[in-house]
Amino acid sequence: MNKRNIRTHLVKQLRRTAKGVTLMVSLMRRGDGDALHDIRVQVRTISSVLHPFIDMPHMKPLRRCLEPVKSWVRKSNRVRDTEAQLELIAELLPEPYPKDVERHLAQTGKALMQERASLAQSKSLAKLPRRVARLAKEADDCLGRVSSASLGKVIAQACEALLFALRNDCAAGLQEPEHWHQARIRIKQLRYLIEWFHDFLDQRYADFAADTKLAQENLGRLRDWQNLRAAMTEVPAMAVWLAGHAELEDELTRQASAAMAFLDQKLRGWE
């Protein structure tokens, strides 16, 4: 592929994403409860697909434009973490709840709505679509200086680097929390890269990305459960209630362990 094809593909995807973010921001400002998650996925995808390029020469304008976009994701972390925890409770622990648990969940839900509304009306969210659109322009300008061979090589090397790191994480299994947490993040980054650039990569990359989806979900669910347990340590009623469902954590751990073992096996055959 020549550099025009790769660059045009990336810029076209960024512009399409900017339109999607514009729509999602509008929906979030009108109170759509699902919009935050969708915006975060879009923005994190952008960060992942641009990351391989930002340390190349002449990419300072791209790095400068990307930072406030990534900063917005960090600002939204607490709201999204609370959303994920409440969703996990609703999925794994259906009602009825003990009265004190029900009371705390109602309070948490109310506080979440207030924080989400505040985020929805923030200036940083209002600026987000323009910032994503500017990223498309800067990517077009900056990548225009890079040869076709270099662009293809950077994409392939980024995928291989993530696969190598993921292999080390999976070999460690669940024994070291940092490794399996990093494995979950790397799976996301790898999938975003492959999904955006699949036309410029061997088919085996797309096949591997498809195989990782369930593993990512299972690792994410265990992470959400552990975050929930940690967040509730100072709420006695919740802490006792969650501790009484140890079988759920055991099952989530089993699923996550199976996911790591599955990925480890897949990666052993990767050349």
Q: Name the structural class.
A: mainly alpha
Contiguous uncertain segments of 5+ residues:
none
User: What are the secondary-structure elements, in order, as H or E?
Assistant: HHHHHHHHHHHH
Number of strands: 0
Number of domains: 2
Strand content: under 5%
Q: What profile does the largest beta sheet have?
A: none
What do the pLDDT scores average to?
90
| Overall spatial form | flat
Radius of gyration, CA atoms, in whole angstroms: 20 Å
Summed up, the helix count is 12
Q: Helix content range of the residues, please? A: over 70%
What is the terminal separation in angstroms? 23 Å
Features:
271 residues; mainly alpha; 2 domains; 0% strand
Could you provide a short overview of the structure?
By secondary structure, the chain is mainly alpha-helical. It folds into two domains: 1-146; 147-271.
